[in-house]
What does this fold into?
Amino acid sequence: MAQIYRITEQYSGESFECEAGQSVLKAMEQRGMKCVPVGCRGGGCGYCKIQVLAGEFECGKMSKVHVPPEALEKKEVLACRVYPLTDLTIECRPSQSGLASKQTKTTALR
Amino acid sequence: MKKGVMRPGHVQIRVLDIDEAVKHYTDLMGLIETDRDDEGRVYLKAWSEVDKFSVVLREADEPGCDFMGFKVVDEATLVQLQKDLVAFGVDVEQIPEGDLKDCGRRVRFSVPSGHAFELYADKLYTGKWGVTEVNPEAWPRGLEGMKAVRFDHCLFYGPELAATYDIFVNVLGFHLAEQVLDPEGTRVAQFLTVSMKEHDIAFIHHEEPGKFHHASFFLETWEDVLRAADLISMTDTSIDIGPTRHGLTHGKTIYFFDPSGNRNEVFCGGDYTYPDHKPITWKAEDLGKAIFYHDRVLNERFLTVLT
Ligand code: FES
It folds into this structure.
């Protein structure tokens, strides 16, 4: 049986289980939670950006525009490409996800 | 086509992992791999297309669209359009023959929305895939997945729609088929065509320049769109929205993402246009219905998730 890790999102206080080999974003979606915004699910759009505050993880390929080396150092990564190796504490603030800034960019369409 | 731009010819898409991407565009979408080059780029086409390729995949560390190319009727037209672009104040770059395999010289330019486009006159004519030129059968056997019929159009997000419109309409001879106007009368979406299709290319206003919304592929029927949806589930592919219908163009559609997060569409149907048709207008206040005719509300993701 696959190892199960607990992911806790600090800003919302939500927490959910994630199987080894499953991305944090996918695990969150599967359990019907919404603490991280869901975009392309492919490491391309930057929509699901989080910061990992505690715990070990591996990353799949992510767009350099959204995760430059400086961001990676701060463990600011894309939840759709984060695979936990231990329990994780993550944080996704609405502003941090880029959502707020992106929303102003489309005001012309609102 | 009044200035000799004939149709969308190709799109070069950046992907994070070339093998995963090739699998997606061939096994799932049903494109056919036709070649690879020294730079590692992979060339693909849909079966009904007559030229050697329409999609080029390039591995990079950031996904998105490098450029979209339009085929013009002949070399004389290419020479003329290049002159016209320069006269209009657009910088052009010469890409030599063979830079893309079996493709003639290309004239590349950028538009104020921040996107790169190309014009070219020649590409190797390989004929429709899997059917003969004389007494062709209805469709070829051996197609995979969604069996995409052709590369149809792209939608780009960026600023400066009016200046971009000027280049496409006044210099390149495109025709405005559909638009979205805000209450002040500013065009916030423009669907442009050189054919009878409602769009060969489309732009939606967005402050950040040069963003790629999707590349779209044509399917014949609504049943094919539903089958595409089934395949998306079977392969656990990242879905965006659909199957549904657009208000704009009235096409029946489904959106999903490639493994690097670039959005794809497959669709069928859609209205037609002739050069004497006035543009169809949707109001920005009714954008939900304009984009998703059934739900009549926008999903945030459609407006903000881009590569
Ligand atoms: S959802 Fe697009 S990068 Fe994660």
About this structure: The helical segments of chain B are 18-28, 75-87, 161-171, 222-234, 287-291, 300-304. The pocket of FE2/S2 (inorganic) cluster is lined by residues A 25, 38-48, 78, 80; B 261 (CB under 6 Å). The two ends of chain B are 30 Å apart (CA to CA). Chain B has a mean pLDDT of 97.
